[in-house]
Amino acid sequence: MKAVILFTRSPKIGSKLIQAVTGEPVSHCAIYVPCFGTVWHSTVPCIINVPYDDFIATHDVVYTVDADIGWDQISEMNKLFGRPYDMVSLLLVGLRLLATRFKIPFPKIDLRSLSGMYLCTEFVSDIMLSDIDSYITPYKLYLKLKGG
Questions:
Q1: What is the domain-level CATH number for residue 41?
Q2: Can you say whether residue 85 is alpha, beta or left, with left for phi > 0 and alpha for psi between -120 and 50 degrees?
Q3: pLDDT tens profile 25-46
Q4: For the segment 80-134, what is each residue's pLDDT rounded down to a tens digit?
Q5: What would the DSSP string read from start to end of 94-111?
Q6: Which of 95, 105, 120, 142 places its Cα 20 to 30 Å from the Cα of 27?
Q7: Distance of CA 33 to the CA centre of its chain
């Protein structure tokens, strides 16, 4: 079955803040499964699925990556439905990025494995790669998925 990984931005303050801190063109990622017409993503307050048209009404799609998705992955997305968004990890990612800019050491802490909460990148990488990097940005995940 086909899926499309969407890499987006929006005019909302959170999106602009993420772009400002990362210096990258996107601030969010999600999984679109065309045969269902539904987009799954981790957002405030939790992992949800919404109709594609509702999603693109509030998100500007900048990049896409075509992918194959199996029933096991669909099942996993449904199991994660309602899991909270990880605001603490988002704060730590921001602090780590700022520390890196100023060459200040900052430890890598995988709070997702401790909390069970998800950032958008953790959700997409967990489903599509079975590998979670809590500190990967949406743009770096795009580059990784497209093979760059």
A1: 3.90.1720
A2: beta
A3: 999 999 999 999 999 999 989 9
A4: 999 998 877 766 767 777 777 788 887 766 655 666 788 899 999 999 998 777 7
A5: HHHHHHHHTT-------H
A6: 105
A7: 15
Residue type, 64: T
Q: Under 8 Å CB-to-CB from 126, ≥6 apart: which residues?
A: 76, 80, 118, 132
- Return the amino acid letter for 15: S
User: Regarding predicted confidence, which is higher, 54 or 93?
Assistant: 54
Q: Does residue 111 contact residue 93 with C-beta atoms inside 8 Å? A: no
Domain with 7, as residue range(s), is: 2-146
In eight-state DSSP terms, residue 83 is P
Spatial distance between the Cα atoms of 32 and 54, rounded to a whole number of angstroms: 12
When divided into structural domains, the chain yields a total of 1
